[in-house]
Task: inverse folding
């Protein structure tokens, strides 16, 4: 009988390794955490907190329903790092008036009264790819942004034998020929090189177009745009 092709053998072995890794991860989660007697200071949170003024509004329950779904805080080792992380969240999630937006999936799970407080907007994540998110309208004074000290209160329990075996399996997957098998079993990873290649092709085409033009023409075009 003709033996299986070496690539098929590698795929089967990769599946066995990944299945064992999944069992190890489940066993690690089952170890749980140990509560510390004295919490350890660990950076800062920048977060959105609710004030007492929210109780003045009749639709308080709808507001609290939305607020429960918001990603309301970021962590940083210092206040400066927390502020940078918050600024990135503003850029990534289109935060308006310091209130994070919500996704379409989160919006569908809201009650009708809560949906009335949301405003949809669309934006591009890639060329010709639109996404929809929802702004949240909360009255001014019902929330504020503050810095809060962060603490480590629990430590994860570790089994050295499980950690050692997991590291050994990671090393097996990095052997020649096995990395390609891992990528083949994870098709979502293989899309990123395609997107990067498209981006590089777009940039290269623009640069190639510039090489075919006179420098003075480009300068005159920029100057005329600034005047307008």
Result:
């Amino acid at each position: 009988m003709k033996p299986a092709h070496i690539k098929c053998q590698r795929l089967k072995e990769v599946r066995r390794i990944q299945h064992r890794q999944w069992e190890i991860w489940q066993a690690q989660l089952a170890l749980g955490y140990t509560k510390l007697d004295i919490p350890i200071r660990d950076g800062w949170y920048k977060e959105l907190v609710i004030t007492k003024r929210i109780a003045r509004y009749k639709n308080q329950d709808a507001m609290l329903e939305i607020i429960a779904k918001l990603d309301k805080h970021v962590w940083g080792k210092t206040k400066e790092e927390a502020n940078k992380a918050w600024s990135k969240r503003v850029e990534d999630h289109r935060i308006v008036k310091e209130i994070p937006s919500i996704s379409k999936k989160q919006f569908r799970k809201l009650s009708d009264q809560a949906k009335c407080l949301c405003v949809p907007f669309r934006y591009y994540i890639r060329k010709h790819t639109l996404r929809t998110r929802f702004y949240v309208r909360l009255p001014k004074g019902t929330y504020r942004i503050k810095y809060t000290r962060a603490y480590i209160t629990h430590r994860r329990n570790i089994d050295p034998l499980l950690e050692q075996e997991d590291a050994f399996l990671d090393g097996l997957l990095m052997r020649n020929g096995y990395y390609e098998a891992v990528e083949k079993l994870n098709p979502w990873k293989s899309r990123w090189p395609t997107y990067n290649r498209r981006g590089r092709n777009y940039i290269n085409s623009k640069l190639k177009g510039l090489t075919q033009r006179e420098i003075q023409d480009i300068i005159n075009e920029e100057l005329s745009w600034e005047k307008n």
In short: Residues 222-228 have pLDDT under 50 and may be disordered. The chain has three domains: 1-32+172-188, 37-153, 194-227. DSSP finds nine helices and six strands in the chain. The first strand starts at residue 33 and ends at 50.
